[in-house]
Specification:
The structure holds two protein chains of two kinds. Chain A is of the alpha/beta class. Chain A has eleven helices and eleven strands. In chain B, about 55% of the residues are buried. The chains are: A alpha/beta, B alpha/beta. At the A-B interface, helix 5, helix 6, strand 10 and strand 11 of A face strand 1, helix 4, helix 6, helix 8 and strand 8 of B.
């Protein structure tokens, strides 16, 4: 019985993985030469593991804060993917009506936010976690980022504070080893990331996992999410993975000579989808035609979304200056609104000394 | 309305205390806000009344503090007040303010806005020197999505603070520390003052003085001097908020007097004074209009008292300038 449940879960996660891979693949094929998505896009081909597992575990009221490689996390919050596709095209139906694009997309209704400045969204996530703690809720907050964000001071400030206040947050570092082209060892000193982060707490609250081994990751995430939901305090997960796509756009950036063909091929062999598919086939959870049928179904769905986005309109009437401000106010009957008034001021010449 | 003589710092404390009393979702964060000294008296005793959850001391991590305020106010319930002992320290939060907070409403369009008030203090005197006395109001007024207020008296300090706490636009309130001991009779009850309304402190028909922040303190003396000695009536306008700016009042006054002096307690180049001059010139296109400005030199603040005196503006600087203007 236990196995049956486990297999059903893994099958669901497999579906997630496959969907995300196809979503990214089809969009990257559609990107050029059509050139209709005039929007920088950071594809996550190769890094589908973490988001696919999060999608399985996260609840409606959990928050996700993502870095610029946002599609996986968007998917993890179970937001209609049409909202993302239309946003990439900058159209009206888009999650942010074409104001944000791939790297800055957000969907407040489903508690999802992304942003392109590394490290910045981690601090915001910590604030949300403090909010949840103050409300004594059982919601958790996910801060997703790459190992490059761990170069930034904000990351360490966040780790310190989250541990100090025992906040319900999971820091997920998808370590793909590269900041665009620059490898981790050229940027970071000392021990491994999860070892360094572990110094901020006496609890055993950091772990490093193979980000492409979905079966192992599922166990880790299950355990960690349960703990954090039950007032354990923060957790740091380093998931080692690899970006098969280039840093940005559909083109490969391998001509930059920053990684070897052998390295890319090695990771292609470690594909999270193939690995799980083999496991499911070996255990006869799925049959030989399962993936193909699913692929066919997903492809149709995704192409339909692209067509919808292409036909959708841009927002045309907008007062840009007003769009930056919310002029509504919190009303409170006990506070009067007064006008400027020139009461006499008694000026003090005393200098204020001290800190 | 019952009025009570109140210092600038106590007016702020009053505004915070009353806001927290009226709404349990008002939170104050900042280094040392929960100690008796209470950031020059402006947060004293709040922790006793509202507890450590709502009045929180913070690590020396300005950057994180500001970022966190965004997360805290995301659900549009909590209203966050951040306190920085010096605006210079606050610059660690530039990323949070510029790259995230200011554009949050914009990029999520109709769906979220932030209720965050940042109180940033500008030092002056007693050797505050180059890292404790800079005033960056024009930097932040330049940024879409943020409001900037710069109160010059206890009445404005309390009213603008309460207005900001109960609004949905991130606001930076710049407080000149040299105003903290000034006192005034102000209403005891809570009240809010609209942004974007300049205060015509004194009416006049010959010359307009537009002043920002603590420099307003110097103007009544200057006005009296010219009324007595030159029979010149000066119109004194306190700008109160830099963004939104009360363009109408400024332009109306300039149209009337045709002679305008803008006083800005910051560097001259690329600053607020330049913006105000441009707005008036662009709108009036009047050849007879004479407009000038007085600001700090484009230099960092020296420490010693002798050099400080050279750096800051005083009444005599303004009087000399206006004497020149009268002849024009």
């Amino acid at each position: 019985m236990k196995n049956k449940l486990e297999y059903a879960s893994l099958k669901k996660i497999f579906n997630n993985l496959l969907y995300l891979r196809l979503f990214e693949k089809i969009l990257s094929e559609e990107y050029h030469p059509a050139d209709e998505m005039k929007c920088p896009v950071h594809f996550c081909i190769g890094q589908e593991g973490v988001p696919s597992i999060l999608k399985f575990f996260l609840k409606k009221n959990d928050y996700v804060f993502s870095h610029h490689r946002s599609h996986g996390y968007f998917f993890a919050k179970s937001i209609p993917m049409q909202k993302l596709v239309s946003e990439l095209y900058g159209k009206k139906f888009g999650a942010n009506y074409g104001f944000a694009g791939s790297q800055d997309v957000s969907y407040p209704k489903k508690k999802f936010y992304a942003g392109a400045i590394l490290g910045g969204s981690i601090g915001i996530a910590v604030g949300k976690a403090l909010d949840e703690k103050l409300k004594k809720s059982r919601n958790i907050v996910i801060a997703g980022f790459g190992e490059s964000a761990c170069d930034v001071g904000m990351f360490w400030e966040s780790i310190n504070y989250a541990n100090l206040k025992k906040l319900p947050i999971i820091f997920i570092c998808e370590n793909n080893n590269y900041s665009v082209l620059s490898p981790q060892k050229a940027r970071q000193s000392g021990k491994k990331l999860f070892q360094k982060v572990s110094q901020f707490s006496n609890q055993n609250n950091t772990i490093s996992v193979d980000g492409n081994d979905v079966i192992k990751m599922k166990k880790v995430f299950n355990n960690v999410i349960n703990k954090v939901r039950n007032n354990h305090g923060p957790f740091f997960i380093e998931a080692k993975t690899y970006r098969i796509s280039g840093h940005v756009g559909p083109e490969t950036d391998d001509a930059q000579d920053y990684r070897s063909k052998a390295e890319v091929n090695k990771w292609k062999k470690k594909c999270p989808i193939k690995k799980l598919e083999k496991y499911l086939l070996d255990n006869k959870i799925i049959n030989n035609t399962y993936s193909k049928n699913l692929e066919h179904k997903f492809k149709l769905e995704i192409r339909k979304m692209i067509k919808f986005a292409q036909k959708d309109k841009f927002i045309s009437k907008i007062n840009l200056e007003r769009a930056n401000y919310d002029f509504t106010k919190f009303r409170n009957k006990k506070i009067k609104t007064l006008r400027p008034y020139n009461y006499k001021i008694n000026i003090s010449n005393k200098t204020i000394v001290g800190y | 309305m019952y009025l009570k003589e109140t210092t600038f710092s106590h007016a702020i404390q009053d505004g915070l205390r009353q806001s927290m009393e009226l709404d349990k979702n008002v939170y104050v964060f900042g280094q040392l806000v929960n100690y008796q000294s209470g950031v020059f008296g402006s947060t004293t005793n709040l922790v006793k009344e509202f507890g450590k959850d709502r009045v929180q001391d913070f690590p020396v991590a300005e950057s994180l503090m500001t970022s966190m305020s965004i997360g805290l106010s995301l659900e549009m319930k909590k209203k966050i007040v951040l306190v920085h002992h010096r605006i210079d320290f606050m610059l660690y939060s530039m990323d949070a303010i510029v790259n995230w907070m200011s554009l949050w409403k914009f990029k999520s369009v109709r769906d979220t806005s932030l209720s965050i008030t940042i109180r940033a203090i500008v030092g002056k005197g007693w050797g505050q020197g180059p890292q404790h006395s800079k005033s960056f109001h024009s930097w932040f007024a330049n940024l879409p999505g943020i409001r900037v207020a710069i109160p010059s008296n206890p009445y404005d300090a309390k009213g603008l603070l309460i207005e900001s706490i109960f609004s949905k636009i991130p606001t930076i309130i710049i407080e000149h520390r040299s105003l903290y001991n000034d006192s005034q009779k102000i209403p005891l009850e809570p009240y809010r003052l609209d942004f974007g309304k300049a205060n015509i402190v004194r009416k006049g028909k010959n010359i307009t003085i537009i002043a920002i922040g603590y420099l307003n303190k110097l103007i009544p003396g200057v006005c009296d001097y010219f009324k007595k000695n030159y029979k010149t009536e000066i119109e004194h306008i306190d700008i109160r908020s830099l963004y939104p700016l009360d363009k109408k009042t400024l332009i109306r006054s300039a149209k009337k007097t045709k002679k305008v002096l803008v006083l800005d307690p910051s560097w001259k180049s690329y600053g607020a004074s330049g913006e105000i001059v441009a707005i008036i010139k662009e709108t009036l296109k009047d050849e007879k209009l004479f407009i000038d400005r007085l600001c700090y030199p484009d230099s960092h603040t020296p420490m010693s008292q002798a050099l400080e005196e050279k750096y800051y503006l005083n009444e005599n600087d303004i009087i000399t300038k206006i004497k020149g203007m009268i002849k024009k």
